Structure formats: structure tokens, C-alpha cells
Amino acid sequence: MLRNTNANEAAAKITALVVDDSRINQRLHRKLLENLGIENQVAGNGKEAVDVHCSGKQFDLILMDMDMPIMNGIEATRTLRAMGIRSTIAGVSSHSHFETVQEFVKAGLDDYQEKPLTISKLVSILQKVNSN
Predict the structure, then answer these.
(1) C or N: which end of the chain has fewer Cβ atoms within 10 Å?
(2) Which pLDDT value is given to residue 41?
């Protein structure tokens, strides 16, 4: 007997890392992910994201802020890609300046969404995760 698979069941297999120094954005992004049944974890800056991966943890999706202390999102994305991390990395930032966004994308992003992250923007990002 065939069973229908809904979006939440498919999403339940996805793991995500939220990389943002703002506790408010961390909570917002985690809640959006949890509402879709996606297991997730938080890193407060790019270095923490790199360190989590160095410890052997892997994620299907990384939501990466651009402006953070210690290591920003551009540097963290470059470092993760240089380490061979193939996760879908989506930049989520309040920046709309074309050159800055382009630098972020060239660092190795698979997607870029302007804050605030919404459920429809997250679903758009998840389509890229599912196609990888």
C-alpha cells in the first residue's frame, strides 16, 4: 500500500544550522524551521559554525547571517566551502546593497534571502535543499 508523504514528513529528515548573532533572529529562524518539522541547532557567529563542522557534525541546510562578530558570514561560507562542506548554504541578511550581496553569493551561497525570513522564503530555500 502506497502512503502519501506530506511536506512535514519530508522536511523531518532535514537538519539545519542557524548562524546568527542576534538572539531574536535565532529564535525566529528556529521557530520557522521547527514549524516545518526541521531539527535545528544554533551558532552565534561564523567561527562557531566552522567549529561545529570541525567536530564532525553535518547539516543539510545552513542559514547564514552576513554581519556577525568574530567571523562574518562571508568568511564563514568561504571557510566551509574550502573544507568541502556541501550543505545548502542560504545567506539571510538585511543587506540589499548589490555589491555586498554579490560578494556573499560568490563566497559559496546557494541562495540569498533578505531579512526578515518568512515561511515562504524558507520554503523556497528548502526546494534547493531537496534538489541537492
Answers:
(1) N
(2) 97
CB-facing half-sphere around the CA of 62: CA atoms within 13 A = 32
Write the burial class of residue 46 (CB in 10 Å: 0-12 exposed, 13-18 middle, 19+ buried). Answer: buried
User: What size, in residues, is the chain?
Assistant: 132
> Is 16:43 a contact under the CB 8 Å cutoff?
no
How much is the pTM? 0.89
d(CA 81, CA 60): 14
Q: Are strands 39-43 and 111-114 parallel, antiparallel or unpaired?
A: unpaired
Listed residue (49, 51, 60) closest to 16, CA to CA: 60
